[in-house]
Prior knowledge:
Layout (H helix, E strand, L loop, with lengths): L21 E2 L13 H14 L1 H18 L1 H15 L5 H22 L7 E5 L2 H8 L4 E5 L6 H9 L5 E5 L5 H8 L3 H4 L2 E3 L3 H12 L3 E5 L8 E7 L2 E6 L1 H9 L3 E8 L4 E9 L11 H21 L20
Parallel strand pairs: 2-10, 3-6, 3-9, 4-5, 4-6
Antiparallel strand pairs: 1-7, 7-8, 9-10
Helix pairs in contact: 1-2, 2-4, 3-4
Amino acid sequence: MFLHTTGPSSASHPSSIGQADAPLGQRWHQLPERGSTAALALITWIATVIGRPAARLLLYPIALYFLVTAAAARRASMLFLRRVLGRAPSWHNRFHHFHCFSATILDRIFLLAGQLDRFEIEIHNGEIVIDQLAAGRGCILLGSHLGSFEMLRALGVIHRRFPLKVLMDVEHNRHITRFLNARNREVAETIIPLRGPATLLEVMERLEEGYLIGMLGDRVLADGRAVHCRFLGAQAPFPTGPLLLAAATGFPVILVFALYRGKNRYDVHFERLAVPAEGRVQSSSASIRALAQPYADRLEHYTRLAPDNWFNFYDFWAEEAGQRR
């Protein structure tokens, strides 16, 4: 089976920029990689030789398998669905959650092969990116583990819509990530690996050159720092790095959410996120929280629009005893 329960992971921040309520070692980063490259190679062969419809039929037993066997992910899914739905999730809700995730992983095979013509993609507020490119200035494209961030890489690189680099933790789920990246070396070359202080220098250089730097803003690295924001009715940890980087350098932030809508349909949403002018962010937790809360609010908005696109299969709110720090 090829489903890995935490999803592809981009870094939440380029360095130890920023302060927080407390250091937070996110449990998602400690979860073992699930799946095998052999199984992924098999389904890739089925998808490319027999076709996407046949491969999609395999998603039903795959989703059922992980719903039954992945106890931690199943519990995390139930906690999330109960919160976002406001009721106990049905068996269908839980199965559909796993099925949606596996469908987006399958679609990565076709996206990496440059086959965007297989998909119906509706882009909302795309003029925001067009205007940013026309200004000739880099920016931060801030996404999340909601929907398919791979769709952004496909649009940016394969269709050459915009110059893109993606900040990524290449060690987590490294076997499956390397397998997928090997299918398209051009896409793989967009990655800026997380390497400590040197990463920040490369990010800054690319921003100055006019690149759009993709980051995910909803997971805190094991050695990172976080601030707690209100999200779906409770406090949850969010990384401080991406927004503090934007505030410290003056580069704008554009939010991106590529939501899977079933079958071959995706909705890609862009929004500008207001960030205080350079040098106006204080180091207090309250100031940083005020910076991060608008991101959490927009993430909540799109999560409610497409709850089955939530691919953080771990206890996001740290509700288990002893997880809150």
